[in-house]
Amino acid sequence: MRELRENILPNLIAPVPTVETLRNWFDAARIPRLKSNPLAKRGGGTTFYSVAAVEKFLRSRTMPGKVHAL
Description:
Distance between the termini: 20 Å
Strand order of the largest sheet: 1-2
Shape: elongated
Structural class: alpha+beta
Largest sheet: 2 strands, antiparallel
Strand content: 5-15%
Order of helices and strands: HHEEHEE
Number of strands: 4
């Protein structure tokens, strides 16, 4: 999530939403999560989101400088 907020999202929307807001949006849109340790039952380290799916989601819901409410 940190890398998305620092590298990808500033190119798509401004200001970049909070981590909690992004997580809610991504979960509601069913964007795939990738775990750094897929064998861990709980926790398992960092969770990553599919960058391509995040970009597609944001491009489908944004206009220059605005994010539509979900």
